[in-house]
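Translate sequence into structure tokens.
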Amino acid sequence: MALMETIGSSVLFLFAALVPGYFLTLAFFPSRKEIGMLERFAFSLFFSIAFLAIAVLVENQLLGMPLNFFSVAATIFGMIALGLAVYLIRSQRINAPEFIYRLFPKIDKNDSAGIIPKLD
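Result follows.
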């Protein structure tokens, strides 16, 4: 039983430490010409740790939300959804009103990095 808990905890840690940051790097750097895969991995790790910690701290201290599994999981999935939405808008895969493109400049759809990373 302890082995399963260890494996499960490791998988959850890797998910929380990489996936939200990866989608945030897609939002900040949607073009595959801007950064390489190693840089995207490093930024993913940094963005996940930094932004998740700040978001959870703000939720707890300013909004009074308790720190538990569900609040942190909601924050993680919220960060993923936000990063994915900005990426889809910037890469023109979904249409948005023109004033949105003042905040998030368009890039060419063919130049955008894929949602699932390709190891080249």
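Note: The two ends are 39 Å apart (CA to CA).
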